[in-house]
Q: What sequence folds into this?
């Protein structure tokens, strides 16, 4: 990560909440464009396609768009329209978008992204959540929105080993909420963020009013799910989960075991970083979408990849996932299971919880929530792993309905 003051990421012992503005040095932008122009391309092996990874015949036009038509400065200016802050928690810089609603009585909502994503994932839902009346909702649905960059992501590069431990991350984001003046709050998470949301009631007991997560799935490095006794969507999702753990979890095995070795390619080649992210958008977005840009705006996707590139966060996020997976393994061993279950977690009384599941998700309720601790479990026939980018209206409606019932 760049360490100049305008970029807002210099480590210090200041525990205040400081204004933040994105300002990537022009030299970094020029370097990106040069590297894109000098890409050394692999061939596509005749007779193969997406089943072996991102085809060069697909990625070349995307790289050309990134180099010739995508405008980082335009996207940077749009992101800077959002109020942003940075604060240092126990030596770890944490960046966050913080948008206060103008509606009296609005409640605070903490929103946590996952991998391979960033705070950018939630940009399209901030307006409907903070100003619901202007977006077809009721004033009483209004919330103040806080979207941190999780340690290892966005503008919160890992300060040292251990910062990706999800319990520690949960404590960090709870402290961020304290510093922003919020004692009690709602929480929403996706992917890694949903794991952190599940741990918040343990590290911040009594402070979490209610939780909502998207796409909860069994531990991806755990055992396959038995299909006996499963019917309907649970059986279909279980079969897809079993295929995924055999054929689609290679990215996670690498990051969970050898993140530093992977980091060299992601740090030195923007095309490698692009392919590493695009593959997941291809596989995890709405199955009805033939290509990633059919499900998610291409420039929005490139903004996410650009944040990884400019901040050299391929290595940082890989180490964060490595540390998060160690915790999940300990959890699974202690629980004697696959690591799925009560999102309140490990004996702590959980707040009211709900889940939204979209078409591409591998969320098998019989495996994830056998005790039906989720008070609501809503399945949608569209969308995928990034609903705030793919189907923001559905996600906002689910959160409004559930959070509105738990005041």
A:
């Amino acid at each position: 990560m760049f360490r100049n003051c305008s970029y807002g990421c210099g480590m210090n012992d200041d525990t205040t909440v400081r204004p933040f503005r994105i300002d990537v040095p022009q030299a970094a932008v020029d370097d990106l464009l040069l590297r894109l122009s000098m890409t050394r391309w692999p061939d596509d092996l005749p007779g193969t396609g997406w089943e072996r990874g991102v085809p060069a015949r697909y990625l070349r036009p995307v790289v050309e768009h990134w180099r010739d038509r995508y405008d980082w400065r335009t996207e940077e200016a749009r992101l800077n329209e959002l109020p942003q802050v940075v604060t240092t928690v126990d030596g770890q810089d944490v960046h966050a978008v913080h948008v206060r609603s103008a509606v009296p009585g609005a409640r605070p909502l903490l929103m946590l992204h996952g991998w391979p994503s960033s705070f950018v994932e939630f940009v399209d839902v901030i307006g409907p959540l903070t100003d619901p009346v202007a977006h077809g909702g009721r004033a009483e649905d209004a919330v103040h929105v806080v979207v941190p960059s999780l340690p290892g992501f966005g503008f919160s590069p890992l300060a040292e080993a251990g910062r990706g431990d999800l319990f520690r991350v949960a404590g960090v984001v709870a402290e961020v909420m304290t510093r922003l003046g919020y004692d009690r709050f709602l929480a929403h998470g996706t992917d890694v963020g949903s794991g952190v949301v599940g741990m918040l009631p343990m590290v911040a007991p009594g402070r979490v009013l209610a939780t909502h997560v998207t796409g909860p799935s069994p531990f991806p490095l755990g055992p396959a799910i038995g299909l006996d006794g499963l019917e309907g969507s649970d059986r279909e999702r279980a079969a897809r989960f079993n295929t995924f753990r055999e054929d689609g979890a290679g990215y996670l095995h690498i990051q969970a075991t050898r993140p530093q070795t992977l980091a060299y390619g992601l740090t030195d080649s923007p095309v490698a970083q692009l392919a590493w992210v695009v593959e997941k958008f291809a596989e995890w977005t709405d199955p009805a979408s033939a290509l990633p840009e059919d499900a998610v705006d291409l420039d929005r996707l490139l903004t996410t990849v650009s944040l990884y590139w400019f901040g050299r966060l391929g290595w940082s996020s890989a180490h964060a996932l490595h540390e998060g997976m160690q915790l999940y393994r300990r959890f699974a061993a202690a629980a004697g299971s696959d690591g799925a279950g009560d999102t309140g977690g490990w004996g702590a009384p959980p707040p009211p919880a709900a889940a939204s599941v979209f078409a591409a998700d591998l969320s098998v309720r019989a495996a994830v929530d056998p005790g039906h601790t989720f008070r609501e479990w809503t399945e949608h026939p569209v969308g995928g792993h990034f609903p705030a980018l793919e189907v923001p209206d559905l996600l906002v409606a689910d959160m409004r309905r559930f959070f509105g019932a738990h005041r």
Remarks:
- Residues 1-11, 336-347 have pLDDT under 50 and may be disordered.
- The chain has one domain: 17-38+53-404.
